[in-house]
Task: structure prediction
Amino acid sequence: KQEVTQIPAALSVPEGENLVLNCSFTDSAIYNLQWFRQDPGKGLTSLLLIQSSQREQTSGRLNASLDKSSGRSTLYIAASQPGDSATYLCAVPLSGTYKYIFGTGTRLKVLA
Amino acid sequence: DGGITQSPKYLFRKEGQNVTLSCEQNLNHDAMYWYRQDPGQGLRLIYYSQIVNDFQKGDIAEGYSVSREKKESFPLTVTSAQKNPTAFYLCASSMRQGNDQPQHFGDGTRLSIL
Result:
């Protein structure tokens, strides 16, 4: 059974700091991994999708890496800003299905 | 702009009442999904649809029903059989069903019990 874990559940950092969010999954037979951002009371915004054949993806100040063998992905945020404050979720599809399994998220607060 | 529109933003249900949540997309996506989000928990899949007139149960389908009569629309009905409906409901879509396409989400509907 695929389980997705995100640690820490909450994180507070001063503005300008580089930070890493972690996502772990138990079944390494995944096709891709997706990182999302969720603002309070809003839906999810897709940030990055990494295919299983890729090791990392970059978009602006965000860099996501994927290590299937160890069942881990990290989301690196460079030079954090107060506008980055949100909950960040990762999700992986169940092998051979159309269902995504989501982590419970990391709630990030960047202090000005 | 293309996107997913969920309405209403807030919805209140009385005991014994069925309510319907709307989800419309103009992204020309084939696949659509309904998720439920509870505080401190991840998203849980209620129903999903690959094509028009076809849909499958997710992990927590009991007490819910859906229809997919048009490609653009995937409404969710929360029936009176759902005893704990208070939650944040999210609709999503992807270009085609499968594991290589990102999911796009609406802004959600928050359902509460009166």
Q: What stands out?
A: The CA atoms of residues 36 and 64 of chain B lie 11 Å apart. The radius of gyration of chain B is 13 Å. The longest strand of chain B covers residues 87-94.
